[in-house]
Amino acid sequence: MMRRFIYLLLLLPLAGFSQSIKLSGQLQDEKHQPVPYATLTLRNQPDSQVFKNTLTDKDGRFVFTGIGKGNYILQVSAVGLQAYQQKLTLSGDAVLPVIILKEEVMLLGEVTVAAKKPTVTRKIDRVEFNVENTALSSTNAWEIVKRAPGVQSGGGELSIRGSKGILVTINDKKVYLSGDELKAYLEGTNGGDVKSVEVITNPPAKYEASGSAVINIKLKKNTQAGYKGSIGGSYVQGIYAKGNVSTSQYYKTKKLSLSGSYTFGTGVYYNEIKEVTRYTAGQQTWEDELRRKNYRDAEHTYRVSLDYAIDSLNSLSLGTDGYIARQNHAQYNVPTRIYDQAHQLVSYFETQNNRLAPNHNGSYNLNYEHLFSAKEKISLGTNYTNYRSEADQDVRTAYYLVNPRNARFTTDNTQHIRLFSTQLDYSKQSKLFDLETGFKYSRVKAANGVEFSIDTTGGLVNDPALSNTFAYDESVSAGYLSLNKDLKSWNFKAGLRGEYTAINSRSVSPSELNSQHYFNLFPTLFIQDKLSPDHQLGFSYGRRISRPQYSYLNPSRSYFSPNSYLVGDARLKPALTDQFNLNYDYKENYHAQLYYISEHNPTIQLPFQDNATNTLIQKVTNIPGNHYYGIDLSTSLQPALWWSVDVQAGPGHVESSFGLADGTVLHNRAFTVNGSLDNQLTVNKKAGFTAGISFSFNTAGVQGPAKVSGTSSLGFSARKKLWQNRAEISLLVSDIYRGEKMKVSSDYADQHNFFTYYGDSQNLRISFKYNLGNTGLKAKAAKAKTEEQNRL
């Protein structure tokens, strides 16, 4: 059976040749001269999706092959000539009459260049936030994602409707990073390469079942032959300075497309955490302030992609991208003060933590696609990721007032993760229904080693109780089926995905063996009815799974100071999420969505105080569940020709349950409101000068037994085109009044603690970009990542 399947894959590229139709013709200008190297695009009707692209030869002639019977739209574009469009119905080979292109008339004195405003498009299963050629394109991918509809950011993390279990993808391929490393990677991704951001709160069956929602970053695509490039740089001033220089390069011929981007960044990234813990048994209050200065002396973010059209039916693409930061190091300063019940200082000590944290993440992908016809195709893709990181620290503590002394310990932490995945996808459009199906296999192998040493009179001595070796092996086999049907005013889309997961892990100290094998089904359903030209109603349901980050499964202790550490749990369970949405659209401009989300066994990181040892532990654990329900409202307005506004707001309710040591369950509830207001102003249309003012907020929420304060952010942006659209300069001011500072407090049973977090979000960014080559070309989409990397 397996041999027959392999033969089938090998013969697939030959399967559709006998059914192909050829379309040919010639382009001429008004003087009947041939138009060489013009771009022709063939689109399907009625969805207008791009089916094929080609170029005319030196005699203005063109040929499309491998076309199936059906209705198409032919679009023609050439420099200096007016665009041309024609509808076609093909049932066999066709030769078109000579197409005459008229000269494009340009009055240079009247040419105006202005940046577009970000636009929001709502589809049956997602919201698309288009930022191409807007002021946001002068920032980076992190700043763009933060401003996407429905996305909140706090504490350096992203969340949607209160849930942080988000799958981040680039061009539908997963980014295998999370936390600070995901933020650093997106900060190093040039915003000029980003076309749009898709926020998919209820992903269809084709997507990985991992994550409560999907944020998909779509990079630009190159559809025209020629060369285009850019160079640029940014300077950012927060508490400390940072900056980057970057370049993007694109080149395309008739068969070959090459693209690449590179960003070099450097600077100091600062954040501070103030913790207050009341230990009732000892009648003491401990206050410490963690000031973290992370030095990124040389960050390198790169992406290279090559696409090759073997012929009209077969194409091959390969690429690599990654993040290298071999010089990363940090200094953590943690003063701790201990007070009695009368708030009199009884003890004081200060911890200095010097860290070395180099890491390297490289990903490599290969994809093959075969077209049987305009409405039928198959693709096969593989991805391999190699991730290495270190976190070596030297922690020195000086004790004062009581028993003055010095103490020291060191940790050497190394991590190596290898990820492999391969996926086969098949799709076909027919009169009965549209079909999508496929299979995926992924394998993850992770190895982590921690060497813990304590300074004694004889020097550093290894502590085997706190040293550990942790190995993790996970494989996931998945298959999916999705059907889509349009019936008059109705649109139906249903899917089913099945995933079998096998996990084996081993920890030396503490000694733990963990083996998990489970199978889950993930159904999805979308129903949409266009009641009238002005009214549209929709319903969707989906089930998702959120597997824990790999670092969360490591039971080794990671100490920040002698009285504070982080510990994972090798027996963490995956979280299952069910989501229901009811949508209503009025005149395609006013939108409302009722939602209900139920999470079972979500993983969270919570502060837990050990009152016997006066130790604050950041413990990773499962909680019984979270429940969210509410309504999202949004619209786009244009009060004046020079002023447009996108508005989003919605009330909600969140309930989080948490199991206490005595077996009882604590229910933590909060009524929440979130909203955003994005103003885009055309200051001088003729001069290409635009500006923007944005404001966003979310009120207090809950996370397990903890309460999370509300946050808000006010920002300003401006953009000016220079030198006939060859260059641009941009200004961005973020978090003007430091409203993104947040507080997390726990006050239940014998737990009485809170911390505040500020991540240096108030900053000023100045950016400059210069375009090279043919600025009329569109940028090339680069292949990106797959599924498991977001858990690194």
From TrEMBL:
User: Out of the domains of life, which is the source?
Assistant: Bacteria
The reply to whether Membrane figures as a keyword in the UniProt entry is yes
Designated name of the protein: TonB-dependent receptor plug
Q: Which SUPFAM superfamilies match?
A: Carboxypeptidase regulatory domain-like, Porins
**CC terms in the record's Gene Ontology section:** cell outer membrane
Q: Tell me the Pfam families matching this sequence.
A: CarboxypepD_reg, OMP_b-brl_3
State the UniProt keywords alphabetically: Cell outer membrane, Membrane, Receptor, Signal
**Which residue range or ranges hold the Outer membrane protein beta-barrel domain?**
374-770
Keyword Translocase carried by entry:
no
Cell location: Cell outer membrane
Q: Where is the signal peptide?
A: 1-23
Chief location bin: membrane
Q: Which organism is it from?
A: Mucilaginibacter paludis DSM 18603
